[in-house]
Specification:
This is Acyloxyacyl hydrolase. InterPro entries: Lipid-A_deacylase-rel (IPR018550). The protein contains 1 helix and 11 strands. The protein is mostly beta strands. An 8-stranded antiparallel β-barrel has the order 1-2-4-5-6-9-10-11. Strands 7-8 form a two-stranded antiparallel ribbon. A hairpin with a 4-residue loop joins strand 5 and strand 6. The model has no long low-confidence stretch (mean pLDDT 86).
Length: 184
């Protein structure tokens, strides 16, 4: 069981590194920067909320139809505070995502995966089992004329037991995240 999880982690890690290195070898650009706040989406031992600043780096590829709609890969970074159990800790993330959109203004559907790093694994009575967590999200954003953007995402964090035994706690947390950003 552990060997299969290690193989799955290795494959995900290699894909993540390949996309990151490929992005550095061709021209790409920063697309968006902003702030997000989140509230917990379901009951847990402790109540959580999160604040973060984020930036999105657009990769140089896109797959589009003749109408302009298409998929656009991106790299996502964020740093902020996770608050729960009367404790505040650092949370940082980096990962890849896909945006289904049209160039310019308008609506976009987004999904992605992140690697998250906490400065502690325990918040009050809630033990995440590790300081290294995996994240996944799906969301919706809207870009207004002039650069302003708003977004919503449903975000899940957990250790996924990829690097850990089945004895390690894996409670995870789901967050409703609301963002305001500036699009370049």
């Amino acid at each position: 069981m552990f060997k299969r999880k290690r193989v799955r982690f290795t494959i995900l890690f290699v894909i993540h590194i390949c996309v990151t290195l490929a992005a550095l070898t061709v021209q790409a650009d920063w697309q968006e920067a902003g702030v997000r706040l989140g509230i917990q989406a379901g009951p847990k031992r402790e109540y959580f909320h999160q604040y973060e600043v984020f930036a999105v780096y657009g990769l140089p590829w896109s797959w589009r139809t003749s109408s302009g709609w298409g998929l656009e890969p991106q790299l996502n970074t964020a740093a902020g505070a996770l608050i729960g159990g009367n404790e505040t800790g650092f949370i940082g993330s980096a990962g890849t995502g896909l945006s289904f959109n049209r160039p310019g203004n308008g609506i976009a559907l987004e999904a992605g995966v992140n690697i998250n790093l906490l400065d502690r694994r325990q918040f009050g009575q809630q033990d995440f089992g590790s300081i290294l967590l995996w994240g996944a999200y799906v969301g919706l954003s809207y870009r207004f004329t002039g650069g302003l953007g708003v977004s919503y995402r449903l975000q899940h964090l957990s250790n996924n037991r990829i690097l850990y035994t089945s004895c390690t706690p894996n409670p995870g947390v789901d967050m409703h995240m609301i963002g305001i950003s500036w699009n370049f």
